[in-house]
Amino acid sequence: MQLETKFSKETRCFKVSRVFPTDVNNHDTLFGGKLMSYIDDIASISASKLCRVTAVTASTDSVDFLHPIRPTDSVSLESFVTWTGKSSMEVFVKVIREDLKSGERKIAATAFLTFVALDKHNKPIPVPQVIPETEEERKLNETAEYRTKMRKGRREESKKFADYLLTRYPWE
C-alpha cells in the first residue's frame, strides 16, 4: 500500500505574538519556558497537518536560543515537517524576533522536534512522505538523516542512563 505524499508547505504554520511584561524573566527577556511552549504547540499543528491523526511529541532534539527576545519585540514562529520515517516525522521551528520600533529582524531560536502518529488505540501508524520544494526545505530534508541517527543514539544512551537513576524520593 503506497501512502500519499504531501508537500512540506502543506504542513507550514505561523504564529506571531507580542512580548508582554508577564512573559519575561528577571533578565527582561522572553522566558525560555514560554518560548518552548510556543514551539511545541506550533510543531504539533504541523505534525497533525501532515498525518491528520493524533500526533504526539516523541522528542525535542534541541532548542537553540540564539538572540534574546525583549518586550519591545514581536516573536514569530514558523514550523513545517522536514522529514518522515515510517510513523515519525521531524518538525523544524524557526523563531524570528522583530524589534517593533526599528523593524530589525533576527533568527532568535531554532528547534527540531519529533512526533509520532498514533491510531485510535494509541499505536504508531504510517505517515505520508513529505516532499520538500524550497531551498530551505530541501536543505533540512537532506540533513535529516544525520539528525535521525544522532537522535536514535541519544535515545539509547538515555535509556541506559535511566537504569541508574533512583525513583525513591529524598524524604523516603
UniProtKB/TrEMBL annotation:
Gene3D superfamilies membership: Hotdog Thioesterase
Top-level taxon of origin: Bacteria
Species this protein is from: Paenibacillus mendelii
Alphabetical keyword list: Hydrolase
Alphabetized InterPro entries for the sequence: Cytosol_ACT, HOTDOG_ACOT, HotDog_dom_sf, Thioestr_dom
A molecular function GO annotation: fatty acyl-CoA hydrolase activity
Domain HotDog ACOT-type: 9-121
UniProt EC number: 3.1.2.20
Family classification: Belongs to the acyl coenzyme A hydrolase family.
Keyword Hydrolase in annotation: yes
Pfam families: 4HBT
Protein's UniProt name: Acyl-CoA thioesterase
